[in-house]
Amino acid sequence: MTMLVPAQPGPFALDLEHTALVVIDMQRDFLEPGGFGSLLGNDVALLGAAVEPLQRVLASARELGMTIIHTREGHRPDLLDCPPAKLARGGFIGTDGPNGRILVRGEHGHDIVDALAPAPGEVVLDKPGKGSFYATDLELMLRNRGIRSLIVTGVTTEVCVHTTVREANDRGFECLVLADCCASYFPEFHEVALRMIAAQGGIFGWVASSSDLLANLPVNAGV
Ligand code: TIU
Prior knowledge:
Layout: E1 2-5, E2 12-15, E3 19-24, H1 28-31, H2 36-39, H3 51-64, E4 67-73, H4 84-89, E5 96-97, E6 100-101, E7 123-127, H5 138-144, E8 149-155, H6 157-170, E9 174-183, H7 187-202, E10 206-208, H8 210-214
Parallel strand pairs: 3-4, 3-8, 4-7, 8-9, 9-10
Antiparallel strand pairs: 1-2, 5-6
The structure holds tricarbonodiimidic diamide.
Tricarbonodiimidic diamide binds near residues 40, 73, 159 and 185.
């Protein structure tokens, strides 16, 4: 069944059977004080805006039995998968913080915030980079599931969400980005990043609000 979701630059044809919900990096290290985001000098409270809309979208996606993928940015405890250039610029990676070692797999801060905790059966994908396809088996999983379209959410809009959408678009996946389910430490970057996706006839994909998506889904959970 294909539904049309009102979006920029035009309606997005949504075929649930071939669509996955991707929730990018809703980790304590980005959303909570003392993590990577705050050590970089950012106001992490700005990212909280995406949590409630995402809870509603997740509830509906679960009710519909959609493929749901949560990503986490982070590194091996020995940091061998962290390029020296990344380590040099974000010099906190691997150091101790209130939630454990910063952006290191297995640490409390690296995990997803309680409000959006993955449910059993949902994919949790660890990635060393900003994009979700780089050095991961995401593309293989999507192709094996027959997934052709992605509903993309998470943080931050202009960094990991954008990189992932660009990677997905080049691989032929159609991306619908939910504006209110994404957030940035820089509101102006959030706005411009979304405009960049839908500009030029949808150069990277489509942008819609979660309410426009939920209003067109055959469920009531999130509305
Ligand atoms: N997940 C993600 O976007 N990683 C970042 O480092 N984002 C920043 O905005 N710093």
